[in-house]
Design brief:
17 helices, 32% helix, binds 2-acetamido-2-deoxy-beta-D-glucopyranose, 13% strand, alpha/beta, Carboxylesterase_B_CS, three-stranded mixed β-sheet, eleven-stranded mixed β-sheet, Carboxylesterase, CarbesteraseB, globular
Length: 592
């Protein structure tokens, strides 16, 4: 009898997680894949944010009653984008869009048990805070390879996630998209053991805007750690435009005007009464913003002050961060400088624009197929001020605060992408993290299992999974790969990912000097300026010699010539745009 009980209990602990999971408030039915991973798709982690919950903070999902088993074998919709012309609005085999979109997808090794306590990677997709742009990736290969649980989250974006005004502050809640990310983390912490995951070993990983969101949360949790993650990975981060309430109010006016709700006494009630698609615009801009609560300061300020949650992190960028995020038909210095200054809300002085021109635009670059003469030069500038230099500054702050932080440069050479001029573009590393068959759009062909860069995928996965399990990318790295040393302010060492040539390198001196020059501009990218045309770059950096015979500043480039915030029909933070749907995105830019 005694032995029987022991056997029974052994037997119970050995039972793998069933595709039918009972979460007490609901039962969900997933799918066991033949590969040895079980997936639960479209799992609701918050109540539908519709009706009176539009513009409100997320709340727990309602319980399902009557013993109903919820189908988790199919994806549910992703969140409606801000713009009706966003690529996610187009028919796509992988997703549909809707306002009711607060779902996670979970991937776990099928052999896991509730006692397995596997490391958990919680993936926050990008999309410039205006779109769910890396939606419904297939986490099954990463989960299997790393023996970890992978969770992917949809969160509200654009007007639905980030509308900001005194009306919304009073009758709803601010920064709801960011609160969705937090709600998803809370849901994961509460329930992930039912899928084999360890609620005490969660690592949040985000790309592009998802990475910027995590930077904001690292700052938000500086003095009050809710224990939702033990480590963070920021892939190709940038900074979003962080508006004050007054600046947000102008965008709210843009919205009430566009919807004609400006004519009603209760604009918020009016906005809540409309069909969700009626709230979409191409002109009104919504991003994470100052709310005196979750976001008290711009992230660059918090990181510079060391006011961050002190946990291990990874962050990094791809060599050619700018190529997919600047207008491909840029031909002239004037067009390029206009674009650069728009990114800084017109902050740059004429001499600063001269420095940019001499540093980047005068440098000869090859001309690529179907692209403007000045495209690659502009892309190089954009890559620095929207990605490389920002990442370096965030990590300087983390390192100075005494945390362990690892930097990478994703420099994988894909023959086709190099020939097209895109190079190792913004967020291309996701193909290494998830495997090229599991992302969206058209990944570089060479990353496929039969391609020349196939080997970089398991190498990338191993560093990532190792960090998820141990907070150290080295503990379980692939055999024969180099030790990844932490980033330091003095050393500035980073791991170069390149097939056959992976290794530690120092941040290149030229790039470093350019970042020194650009440093004053970075804050102006994050916070719209009130003084256009006055910002001076650091001309003593040794680059961009302003006294040489440069092109001068064409008339149209006057720093004071910028669109005002309220009327800025300017691109939303372009660097935070998607990697997928890039063709559509670029053609949208061409038509601006
Ligand atoms: C992930 O890939 C596996 C293997 O191709 C497939 O069976 C599974 O349905 C995919 N999952 C998703 C969510 O696409
Ligand atoms: C209001 O909308 C009209 C067109 O519908 C536009 O011409 C005008 O500039 C808008 N005003 C503001 C303040 O956004
Ligand atoms: C409201 O917006 C409309 C455009 O939709 C504009 O023509 C009108 O002047 C605005 N009215 C007020 C009171 O702001
Ligand atoms: C909302 O608008 C969309 C697009 O115009 C339309 O297809 C849908 O039927 C509308 N929904 C309602 C409830 O009116
Ligand atoms: C750049 O030049 C090309 C080729 O002449 C032209 O097709 C394109 O429209 C130009 N771009 C702009 C923004 O003028
Ligand atoms: C590699 O595999 C893809 C499908 O995964 C296929 O389309 C392509 O033709 C293959 N390439 C080679 C060189 O075999
Ligand atoms: C150093 O960085 C500059 C600017 O980013 C780049 O043009 C150059 O090729 C880099 N040099 C090396 C050796 O990587
Ligand atoms: C600019 O270049 C000139 C000539 O090469 C040199 O004399 C001058 O010191 C440089 N100025 C700066 C700020 O680097
Ligand atoms: C900047 O340059 C433009 C064009 O040369 C000129 O019109 C403008 O006055 C200059 N601005 C300042 C502040 O010098």
């Amino acid at each position: 009898m005694f032995i029987f009980i022991i056997l029974l209990s052994l037997c119970q602990t050995a039972i793998a997680v069933s595709p039918l999971v009972d979460l007490s408030y609901t039962k969900i039915q997933g799918t066991a894949l033949s590969s040895g991973v079980t997936q639960w798709l479209g799992v609701r982690y918050a109540a539908p944010p519709v009706g009176t919950l539009r513009f409100a903070a997320p709340i727990d999902p309602p319980a399902t009653t009557g013993g109903i088993v919820v189908d988790a074998t199919r994806f549910q919709p992703i969140c409606l984008p801000n713009s009706p012309t966003d690529f996610t609005m187009k028919p796509n085999k992988r997703f549909t869009v809707a306002e009711d979109c607060l779902f996670v997808n979970v991937f776990a090794p099928s052999g896991a048990t509730p006692e397995s306590k596997l490391g958990v990677m919680y993936f926050v997709q990008g999309g410039g805070f205006g779109s769910n742009s890396n939606a419904n990736f297939n986490g099954s290969d990463l989960a299997l390879f790393g023996n970890i649980v992978v969770v992917q989250v949809n969160y509200r974006v654009g007007v639905f996630g980030f509308a900001q005004s005194k009306e919304i502050k009073a009758g709803g809640s601010l920064n709801n998209g960011l609160k969705d990310v937090v709600q998803g983390l809370k849901w994961t912490k509460q329930h992930i053991s039912s899928f084999g995951g360890n609620p005490e070993q969660m690592v949040a990983s985000g790309d592009s805007a998802g990475a910027s969101a995590l930077a904001l949360l690292l700052a938000a949790f500086a003095d009050n750690d809710p224990g939702l993650f033990k480590g963070v990975i920021m892939e190709s981060p940038s900074v979003a435009t962080i508006r004050s309430l007054e600046q947000g109010q102008e965008q709210y006016a843009c919205l009430t005007n566009a919807t004609k709700c400006n004519k009603t006494a209760d604009t918020l009630a009016c906005l809540r009464s409309l069909n969700a698609t009626a709230l979409q615009t191409t002109t009104c801009q919504f991003n994470p913003h100052l709310d005196d609560d979750l976001v008290k300061k711009p992230s660059l300020d918090s990181f510079a002050a060391g006011a961050v949650l002190k946990i291990p992190t990874i962050a990094g960028t791809c060599t050619d961060e700018g190529t997919k995020n600047v207008p491909k038909d840029t031909n002239t210095t004037a067009q390029a400088l206009q674009f650069v200054n728009d990114q800084a809300f017109g902050a740059l002085s004429n001499s600063s624009l001269s420095l940019i021109a001499q540093t980047y635009l005068n440098a000869p670059q090859p001309v690529f197929p179907n692209s403007g003469r000045m495209w690659r030069q502009l892309a190089n500038a954009h890559g620095d001020f929207r990605a490389h230099c920002i990442t370096a500054r965030l990590q300087d702050g983390l390192a100075a605060a005494g945390t362990t932080t690892y930097n990478y440069r994703y420099a994988v050479l894909d023959e086709q992408q190099e020939a097209l001029g895109f190079g190792a573009y913004h967020t291309v590393e996701l193909n290494g993290v998830f495997g090229a068959a599991n992302t969206d759009g058209a990944p570089p062909a060479s990353y496929r299992s039969n391609g020349t860069n196939a080997a970089i995928v398991p190498i990338t996965m191993a560093y990532w999974a190792s960090f998820v399990k141990t907070l150290d990318p080295n503990a379980d790295r692939a055999p024969g790969t180099p030790e990844w040393k932490p980033w330091t302010v003095a050393g500035q060492e980073r791991l170069r990912f390149q097939t056959g040539n992976i290794g530690m390198e120092k941040m290149n001196d030229t790039q470093n000097a350019r970042c020194t020059m650009l440093n004053p501009m970075l804050a102006a990218v994050e916070v719209p300026t009130s003084k256009p045309g006055t910002l001076e770059l650091n001309s003593a950096s040794g680059v961009g010699n302003a006294s040489s015979t440069g092109p001068g500043i064409p008339q149209a480039q006057s720093g004071g010539d910028m669109p005002s915030l309220a009327t800025a029909a300017n691109p939303i933070p372009l660097c935070l745009q998607r990697m997928t749907g890039v063709a559509l995105f670029v053609s949208a830019l061409l038509s601006l």
